[in-house]
Amino acid sequence: MKKAMYIAIGAVLGAAIFLLTGSIQKEAIASVNDSDIDKEALYERMLASSGAATLDLMIADEIVKQEAEKAEIEVTPKEIDAEMKKYEEQFGGAEALQSILEKSGVTVDQLESEMETYLLIEKLIGPDVEITDEQIKAYFEENKESFAQPEQVEASHILVASKEEADEVAKKLKDGESFATLAADHSIDTATAGNGGELGSFAAGEMAAEFEKAAFAMKVDEISKPVETEFGFHIIKVTGKTEAAEANLEDSKEQIKETLFDEALNTQYATWIAEKKQSYEIDYKL
């Protein structure tokens, strides 16, 4: 929940951050059939649509920082790094995260800034947030299906454009060449080629139907014949399997506690920041 909030807030700031940097010089930033669209027009449009909301976020962040200074609370680089690691794991690695950030118009610096603010909020307000065993149990019962573990396959693949190339790669594998090396040399899946074609674990419904049918039917360490999907021809190597398992409260307890903590923290933060704004001298000049 908080992870998505980081990107959402970062995207708002990334899109509108220049609104508060001073006057905008008249300058063409695009043209349509020799008719210019100038930066001032863009500024006015963005200011009207998101300027006030962006300024409000920045004011709130400044209040958090000043309150943290009063309380002598800091966030260390080590804590930011640990939070970033969690974030990368959730989104499938550093490269996948970078891709998501780029699509959202958010830089790593902006994301780290939002992480720092959130961690300060956790330290300022978190000690007052209590999550009981009764709350955890109730949440588990209401969302039991989502905590069940579906059957999963862990696999790597080499994706090529033609059947001929797939057959060539298959022959090299049969001759003993490394799967990871061949993935790096031949796979057109640029997101995975550099790490040996590793896809991680996936459940049914997450991959192309033809790909899943082959992968779920294979044994661990088995390498498939070329499998055609809409993306091209895949050679699949299954590296692990996880059996389906029913939901278990004890196994899900920490995850549920974190979810409930984030929800409670967000709710309490809204009240806390509103009260703090009343005690600060804020001069809006937008």
In words, what does this structure look like?
By secondary structure, the chain is α+β, with helices and mostly antiparallel strands. 57% of the residues lie in helices and 13% in strands. It has eleven helices and six strands. The protein has a four-stranded antiparallel sheet with strand order 4-3-6-5, sandwiched between helices. A two-stranded antiparallel ribbon has the order 1-2. The longest helix is centred in the first third of the chain and has 32 residues, at 39-70. The radius of gyration is 25 Å and the shape is extended. It starts with a helix and ends in a 7-residue tail after the last helix. Residues 15-24 have low confidence and may be disordered.
CATH class label of the largest domain: Mainly Alpha
Based on CA atoms alone, the radius of gyration comes out at 25 Å
Percent of residues in β-strands: 5-15%
Instruction: Give the uncertain stretches in residue-range form.
Output: 15-24
Task: Look at the helices and sheets and give the structural class.
Answer: alpha+beta
Q: Give the SSE order as H and E letters.
A: HEEHHHHHEHHHEHEEH
> What is the 3D form?
extended
* Number of beta-strand segments: 6
As for the number of domains, it is 2
Task: Indicate the percent of residues in helices.
Answer: 55-70%
Q: Mean pLDDT, rounded to whole units?
A: 89
Strand order of the largest sheet: 4-3-6-5
Biggest sheet statistics = 4 strands, antiparallel
**How many helices does DSSP assign?**
11
The end-to-end span amounts to 31 Å
CATH-assigned fold name of the largest domain: Triger factor/SurA peptide-binding fold
- CATH architectural type of the largest domain: Orthogonal Bundle
GO molecular function: peptidyl-prolyl cis-trans isomerase activity
Domain PpiC: 150-240
Pfam family, one: Rotamase
Protein name: peptidylprolyl isomerase
